[in-house]
Amino acid sequence: MNAACLYIVATPIGNLSDISERAVQILKEVDLIAVEDTRHSGKLLQHIGVSTPMLALHEHNEDKKVQQLIEKLSLGKSIALISDAGTPLISDPGYQLVKAALSADIKVSPVPGPSALVTALSASGLPSDSFIFEGFLPNKSTSRLKKLESLVDESRTLIFYEAPHRIVACLQDMQEVFGAERKAVIARELTKTFETIKNESLENLITWIEADTNQQRGEFVLLIQGKEKEASTVDKEAEFILETLMQELPLKQASQLAAKITGIKKNTLYQIGLNKK
User: Which fold has domain 5-114?
Assistant: First the structure.
């Protein structure tokens, strides 16, 4: 182990067996562990047999605690940073501490492990060669819609975290912006007893989750398939047919009928229709 080193240690997102041997060893050997919640992390440390002292470092006190931790590191102490679950700094506190440590020429060493966004992507069935992680969306619908609208032309797979009490409203806003037919995935309670990974259209996902309140509980990762690139290849005649139908029918029906007439995928036509609104 390196003295005067800040270790960024990933911990399980659910199943405690997912912690690595190296993570356990580091947590045992460091002088101090900076944790998001001492009560929550205390259960994990007790489970893996670690008695190293803890210090709370969360979003409300990070400004005040960073200098205290940097002083300890400057005196040759070793510190591990963990969050409540997964990899620290990914929608969790720690950025200010890492930045300050690097500015003070203190070694920062990552100890890799679980991350909810990568875990969800790997089993989602959506394109994984290129993706964008947006973390948590704004709490209020107006701000959330604005953020989603800025991503409407994004072709990469979109990944978000969401809280259970906002999950239905968030999906409804996503449907409004991306369209009912856009493919999406709900990854819920990953690695836990009630793990659920559901791949459907946004419309079907909303119907499914509204019908079962049990599916509205726990930790959520939402993944949205990126905008199809082939939409720009649609010819003028197909666009004219779609526009004509849209004057008389809702977009969903217009795109379905236009697909039958032209042979073009309804999802492609639906997206064109959204862009023309």
Answer: Cobalt-precorrin-4 Transmethylase; domain 1 (3.40.1010)
